[in-house]
Design goal:
This protein is α+β, with helices and mostly antiparallel strands. The chain has one domain. It contains two helices and nine strands, in the order αβββββββββα. Strands 1, 2, 3, 4, 5, 6, 7, 8 and 9 form a nine-stranded antiparallel sheet that branches. A hairpin with a 7-residue loop joins β3 and β4. The longest helix is centred in the N-terminal third of the chain and has 46 residues. The radius of gyration is 22 Å and the shape is elongated. It starts with a helix and ends with a helix.
Amino acid sequence: MALMAVLATALYGSLRIGFKARRSAEAAVEPVRRAQIALCLARQDIEAALPPKGILAREFYGTDQVDNRGYDSDSLLFCTSNYKPYPGETGCDIIQVELALVSSVVGINENVLVRRITTNLLASSSPEPIEEILCRGVKSFNLGYFDGYEWQDSWDSVLHGNALPQAVEITLTIETADTDTNTISQQQDYQLTRTFVIPCSSPANEQRE
């Protein structure tokens, strides 16, 4: 009986260490997975961005701002052809997309990256955008815009002659939790930066004229 008790205790300790290692590994991988999926979805929209010219096209407008904690909380509003209407849906392959950070209704001091889409751009009244969450636990969301010469912190297509930037850079910082205390650990923040080229952008010399 004593020997079985010793073996059971040793087995329990080994399993506990194994489960703890599994939780730590999953916690380390999860922010990477979330950030990569979010930027992959954003890439599809940005690379299909359309110039603000024509009936369905609207402005390409990127803001540079911070939240109440002092972290980057930029937003981007533009039109893209990255959409396939459902059967019977009123709309086409051109939609308006907004990428922005909002405060989560679940949890405290948690920001989520959302994608708001408007499918029927010719509606008589402005329809309510469809909102979906791309990533949770976002600490900061920073955008940069390349005009062919230098990077800009914001972009207003009206001020740039209805032109698009040549590229958009996104830096996404994810807050990670300490698996031992289940609290936010600032030392373990995960940051991912990606640059997306816009094929429909105008040449740099045209934007400067």
